[in-house]
Task: structure prediction
Amino acid sequence: MDCTTVSSRVAAFLDGEMDAGECERFVLHIEGCEPCTRLVAKLEAQRFAPLSEGEKKSICSRTEFWCDMDSVLDTHMDQMVLAKTACLGPWYSRRVGLPVPMIAAYAAAMVLAVVWGLQQQERASSAELATEHLGQQLEQERRLAAQPAPIPEQGKTAYKVVNYTPERGTF
Amino acid sequence: MPASLRLMNTATSSEWSEVDIKRYAASNPRAAMEMVIQKYREPLYFHARYIVKDHQEAYDVVQEVFIKAMREQRLFNDEFKIKAWLFRVTSNLCFNQVRNRKRRGAILDTMMKPEAFGADQIETIFAGEQRNEVMAALDKLSEDHKEILILRYYDDLSYSEIADVLQVKLGTVMSRLSRARVRLLDVVQDSDLVN
Result:
């Protein structure tokens, strides 16, 4: 271990967060290195003066201390419950991020929308067919109306004489 | 909050593990959220208080952190680390607060703000010559160094917990913490020379 490694591991050594092997190498180095020994001694003497548990308690243990926060958080709690219920549901619910009843409602709405859409499409296509058929009929009638009436041929009678026997002596 | 949970003392709440809370969340997410609040509001308040140095700001930050937690969909997922996430969000909000304050140019003497509930009494508890000296020295460090020193020596988090909060490797925690301590030593020595 060299001086650079010592300076980057000194906190772990002082906090007892170093493993046994590394700790041994660390001690071996500082025993033979005066600057590193001085550094370790100085850092060992460093004090941070955090609040004691008693001091913390004296601040937070009063019932009024958290009152404001409780009332604010309480209003947010119901929204959270809905979201968390979704989060804790089955995999499809967790993936979508919505509660199961809401997913079911969405799915039903989607199915209804698809069915309605199909019905509308079918209705539209049958109306289209009817229109087309009507158009064809109109076209045919128009064509028939545009044709001239047939002229009867000259010399040909339009009447056919059936069982006519003239009386004798008529001519 | 239900009376049953409000009456629970903090000694009980500190005994709840994250696994217990997550298991409880499956049947009652609201109560699980209340357990999270009970368990972490105090350490988060002090963490915030050490960074922003103002009771009301720290209080508001913690409140905001819990509101964010309520909206966090992954909060009760098995692999989610609640404590690390809460401390990370608190740190981020606090440093944003400090940066905004600096940007506004409002150098608040936070020790002179007794208008909040019991703030004067809280400041008395925080006030102490040695503590003030160290806190003043911490303010001269970079955000990274200040944060890691607060997490370790004020919030009493283990190295692995710090690694989770900062989302770095254990080796990085060791080296950053060592560098931060050496830097703090330099700052204290420099200020001693000036004085």
